[in-house]
Specification:
This protein is α/β, with parallel strands linked by helices and 282 residues long. It has one domain. Helix 3 links the parallel strand 3 and strand 4. Helix 2 crosses helix 3.
Length: 282
């Protein structure tokens, strides 16, 4: 885990006192990172304002943290780093895109937390609501971590869609469940809550380094003809990284909302590219 936020570093140092396998080391210009197999990048999130929705304004406030990220990435690669990258931040899709754009690393190795945290919350909420085992719940949260959407048509409780339970409507499964869960998942504090995000990171670490696998909507990019494009849907994640993107059948409304999320993210990226400070490869 690479930390460039001094306040957060003090937290990590204190946590290391109860962890057998957590060692804090300072990286200098001569550190050989060829054997470093993973990086968790946790930028300072002071730039994030959940009330800000204009793509041009978001691009403006993200230029400085992206500049710092690029400097860090350049230093790591110059010292031999060629491992996997987990990016955890509001608007992680922007960091993921520019990580691929700047680094030349295999795009399968670059992963943003995406809506995994919201997916975990949704699953646990449904477990409590329906009093079932977590393995009986199938959920899909999509889009951006700052503006997620739930594919309600693809949420299952055991063999039956959640919408079937809602349509039946009784004291236990009232029709307010969709709106209540939507409100819960749209809480802007989720994306900056360190405990929730740490839980999501732990899920990915188990997949990348402990021979487990998971289908979830992390953020990634695909590269075709030297061009990068964002992928906001579900993927199979394993020790390779992004092993396979899942083509999820969505309703027309869900597809439209996901397209709007993608357009928003792309507009932010294109506005950042117009800047001279942090969107040039030279």
């Amino acid at each position: 885990m690479f930390v460039d936020d001094y306040d957060y570093l003090t937290v990590v140092k204190k946590a290391s006192e109860i962890c057998q396998n957590l060692v804090i080391e300072k990286i200098d210009d001569n550190t050989d990172l060829a054997t470093m197999n993973g990086l968790i990048y946790l930028p300072n999130t002071n730039f994030y304002d959940p009330k800000m929705s204009d793509a041009v304004e978001i691009a403006q406030v993200m230029r400085e943290p992206l500049f710092e990220f690029r400097k860090t990435l350049n230093e790591l690669i110059a010292n031999g780093f060629n491992g996997k990258i987990i990016l955890n931040s509001p608007h992680d899709e922007v960091f993921v895109y520019f990580a691929a754009y700047f680094s030349g690393l295999d795009v399968k190795k670059i992963i943003g937390i995406g809506t995994l945290a919201q997916e975990i919350i949704l699953r646990e909420s449904l477990v409590k609501k329906f009093r079932v085992n977590g393995n009986d719940i199938n959920v899909n949260t999509l889009g951006l971590n700052t503006k997620n959407l739930v594919a309600w048509s693809r949420v299952y409780i055991g063999p039956s869609p959640l919408l079937t339970y809602v349509a039946n409507g009784n004291d236990d499964n009232d029709k307010e469940i969709i709106s209540d869960l939507t409100t819960q998942l749209n809480d802007a504090l989720i994306v900056t809550n360190p405990i929730i995000q740490a839980k999501a990171i732990s899920y990915l670490l188990n997949c990348l380094f402990k021979n487990q696998s998971l289908i979830c909507s992390v953020t990634s990019v695909k590269k075709e003809n030297d061009q990068f494009s964002l992928l906001l849907g579900p993927k199979l994640v394993n020790e390779i990284g992004i092993y396979h993107a899942i083509n999820l059948q969505l309703s027309d409304d869900e597809n439209e909302e996901l397209d709007n999320n993608l357009k928003q993210a792309t507009t932010i990226i294109e506005n950042i590219k117009k800047g001279k400070k942090d969107a040039k490869k030279d």
